[in-house]
Amino acid sequence: MQKGxxxxxxxxxxxxxxxxxxxxxxxxxGGCIIQVRSKKTKKPLFRLDYAPIKxxxxxxxxxxxxPNLKDHHxxx
Length: 76
Known about the structure:
Number of strands: 5
Strand content: 35-45%
Structural class: alpha+beta
């Protein structure tokens, strides 16, 4: 969890410092632990997940960031 927080912390802190510009979501179904979105566009700026990357595989802690939110950046 420390590795996940190390990656998520800058995004969460930025959202907490400017709540007028950001929305923090989570947890939710599908493995999402936390998500930071732009309040203006509603688009995700960061998402931390614990879920399988491929169907039938074990769950892994990973995150998504723009420009390609479909890319999985594995933490462990």
